[in-house]
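WARN no homologs supplied; continuing
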Amino acid sequence: MIAIEQIPMKVLEEIQNSKKYSGLYMPLLQRICEEEYPKYTNHKEAIKSIKDTLHGMFGAYLSVDIFKKASKLLDATETEKILLLHASTKERYKYLADFYKFIFDITGQVESILDIGCGFNPFTLPYYPSLPAKYYALDIDNRIAELNNRYFAHYRLPLLASCLDAVIETPKDSVDVAFLFKLLPLIDRQSKGRAINLLKGINTKHIVVTYPTKSLTGKKKGMTTFYAAAFEEIINGNFKILAKEIIGDELIYIISSSHR
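OK structure emitted
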């Protein structure tokens, strides 16, 4: 694999100059360029591959103008509407009350949350039974982190939204519960075996993992059975399943370490 310093700077600049990906976390952007660029001898094909990879990780879930719209809604304190701008929270929107009731009935009241690949999940705080004292909201785009920190400021919570590349970085914060909503399929696609290592590396009492039961185009394709079997196989011997449910179009697991 070519080291990042050997990849032409124009590659990074070209991706950064695109409106959709201009706010991406630099270590992640560098990693994707490092992995994809050496596969091609043609520059245009390499750039297309990089953008296709980023689209599957990030771009497919939001529109280009999402950040401007979200910022205006945040200024107008119309935060409920922000949930409809991101594909994941939009799909979950009708079931939010049931979704969080299921989770917090198992975990109990929590004082600290780690949300990896958070997107706009923090904007669902009004559906929680109580506000956490700390909410570590981690995503791969600086603009998402900025919006979430503005929202945390509204609730006078610590500004703990930031960026992370979960494929190569593991959060060190100790928390009551960690959320990994629809994240593991994206991680598995990039790095086989990384999912279980990430789960084992998180310092928390409970982990909530979810999987989509249908694709973004609405097709089921046996996804529930496939994801359930794969997940239960990798956690076997390392985690206990405390609860499992399908709510809306989401398969939910609440697990705890079998060694704690």
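The chain has two domains: 4-57, 67-257.
OK
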